[in-house]
DNA sequence: TAGATTGTTAATCGATTAACAATC
DNA sequence: TAGATTGTTAATCGATTAACAATC
């Protein structure tokens, strides 16, 4: 079976398709054409068809796409039909917020453990899960089949901790630390650099203001 | 003065340059060439020079770039030389975490107010700032010169609240709700869709595993 | 001056859009 | 069957990379 590499540009759009299809499905709508999707999502119908066709034909000429089927297929592509077991490293505000968030918001991502260096937090329960010292990580990851680690620790620690986690057998890292991690190619990293995001917003605000001044 | 539109691809890379230049500056390094930056940042030297040249020449032939000067210039481009006043709408876990984050992590972004519909939270202090009812938003935004609103409320409310904020005179929205906002072109929106990000990670993990199975 | 490295033009690559034949 | 709409090829557009002349 030949592997055609799908570009990250396409992957990046899948969750948004998934979200809109959820809504259509929830609204009881059965079928949708690329043109209709185009209208509500503000992207070209051509792009929609190209994107879907990266994964084989989900539609039918003259009919369009079956909403429920398409929704389900995109879910499978995104790996949402499997269960992910994740731990959070760093029990600060952001770590605690994500613990709650991940647990409730999305099925399939199971919050299993929370680790922190701060001994004052050890034993404290966050959403029913005890904060553990980081020395416990290795055993915990291996015994509980953890595949995703969420990094909400300062950047000074993040690089080292990431390397440890890779050793312990983690498959992916959701990285909230403001630093680029250094991990092997087979380990997936998804960065959420909040300050970068805020800076982009700042740029765009400034740009618009000076556009007006011209 | 002619306005050449800078692509969002370039803007998206500026915060990362800014971060690396911070580190070089902090390490006491005075000059850097595009080739040296290329080596540590893992992007092409050509792209670095192209990116910087969108904003005019920051370097000098035969020398390279002065780290401190370049760092400073990129900061200015990103609007980090100004002060932004921001409020957070939604005092849940994420809102509270961001309140702390924004306040401490980045200069120039001043956390000024926190709003929530839940009356049980009203009057409670988060990082020294009282949670207010959302009815106070209009007056507060206008009187305190607020330019950025951070949305950490459920998607059901987000669209309406965003429209209100625009009316009150906000310039930019940092949107953490899982919904596309509907605001005029002159209002800047920066989305942080955490669940989208987690889905991308999920996809890449699945993809790698099946790559191996082939 | 010679060497180094930018600024910038030209070439390449990839992603988006347009068009239309295939087909339900 | 006729109409609609996909799947897919071709055209366009934009972003990245390569190359090199300008110049410090």
UniProtKB/TrEMBL annotation, chains A, B:
GO CC terms of this entry: cytoplasm
SUPFAM superfamilies from the UniProt entry: NAD(P)-binding Rossmann-fold domains, Winged helix' DNA-binding domain
InterPro entries: CoA-bd, NAD(P)-bd_dom_sf, Rex_actinobacterial-type, Rex_DNA-bd_C_dom, Tscrpt_rep_Rex, WH-like_DNA-bd_sf, WH_DNA-bd_sf
Residues involved in NAD(+) binding: 90-95
Main subcellular location of this protein, as a coarse class: cytoplasm
Subcellular location per the Swiss-Prot or TrEMBL entry: Cytoplasm
Gene Ontology biological process terms, A to Z: negative regulation of DNA-templated transcription; response to redox state
DNA-binding region(s), residue ranges: 16-55
GO molecular function annotation: DNA binding; DNA-binding transcription factor activity
Quaternary structure note: Homodimer.
Function: Modulates transcription in response to changes in cellular NADH/NAD(+) redox state.
Family label: Belongs to the transcriptional regulatory Rex family.
Protein's recorded name: Redox-sensing transcriptional repressor Rex
């Amino acid at each position: 079976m030949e592997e055609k590499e799908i570009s990250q540009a396409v992957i990046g759009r899948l969750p948004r398709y998934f979200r809109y299809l959820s809504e259509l499905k929830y609204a009881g709508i059965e079928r949708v054409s690329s043109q209709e999707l185009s209208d509500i999502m503000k992207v070209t119908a051509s792009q929609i068809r190209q994107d879907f066709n990266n994964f084989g034909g989900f539609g039918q000429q003259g009919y369009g796409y079956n909403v429920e089927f398409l929704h389900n297929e995109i879910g499978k592509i995104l790996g949402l039909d499997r269960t992910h077991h994740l731990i959070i490293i760093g029990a600060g505000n952001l770590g605690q917020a994500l613990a709650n968030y991940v647990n409730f918001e999305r099925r399939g991502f199971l919050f299993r453990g929370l680790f922190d260096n701060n001994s004052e937090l050890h034993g404290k329960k966050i959403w029913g899960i005890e904060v553990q010292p980081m020395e416990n990580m290795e055993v915990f990851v291996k015994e509980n089949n953890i595949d995703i680690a969420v990094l909400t620790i300062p950047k000074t620690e993040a690089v080292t901790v990431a390397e440890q986690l890779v050793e312990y057998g983690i498959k992916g890292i959701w990285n909230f630390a403001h630093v680029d991690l250094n991990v092997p190619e087979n380990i997936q990293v998804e960065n959420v650099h909040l300050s970068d995001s805020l800076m982009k917003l700042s740029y765009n605000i400034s740009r618009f203001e000076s556009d007006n001044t011209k």
